[in-house]
Hints:
single chain; alpha/beta; Arc Repressor Mutant, subunit A; 4-stranded antiparallel β-sheet; 8 helices; 11 strands; 43% helix; transcription cis-regulatory region binding
Amino acid sequence: MKGITILIVDDEAEIAELIGLHVKKEGYEYIIASDGKAAFQAVQKHSIDLAILDIMMPELSGYDVIRLIREQHVMPVIFLSAKTSYLDKISGLVIGADDYVTKPFNPMELMARINAQLRRYRQLNQLADANTKVIEAGGLVIYPDKRTISLYGETIELTPKEFDILYLLASYPKKVFSAENIFQQVWGEAYYDGNNTVMVHIRTLRKKLGEEQAKNKLIKTVWGVGYSFNG
């Protein structure tokens, strides 16, 4: 893909330059930022197609930066971090990252993940362009062209993954999707046993939709099978 610009954010210059070298070999342009504040300024100033974010950085952490990015942009974001625990990975994905790579890392694997995210993002944009039908159900309105939703007239902020899950379920009312189905379609990766990423995202999505107190829930759990949209 030509004309692609990748933002590389890491306070370790050697790591940023190594990634930049591989990104350039792939034919992409890149911008390097050494702290969180510079990263967000780069996003505001340049047209960024994908961001690679370290988490522990000066000025603003990677968590702070992704929150600011998600207020205005839906570009893919990959966390690249020395924080390696399972909880760290889940937290990173829930807060809005599209992928999470731990240090030390294999540059070729990172490039494969970058290319996969860019392909998926392009496909989602093409799908949104081809299918801009607004979905309405029980006070919920989903706008696929803008990738936004409202609930009883109030705009609800969702991460890209939360939106993708909701839009997938709402596009096929009453159809039951297993966690494996959802993960494969939304993340575009093979599912593995013990992966509770989908469950965590569904839980957060329900909280944002006020489903915890609702009697007639829009997202229904089919015990032992998966989830469906009760629209």
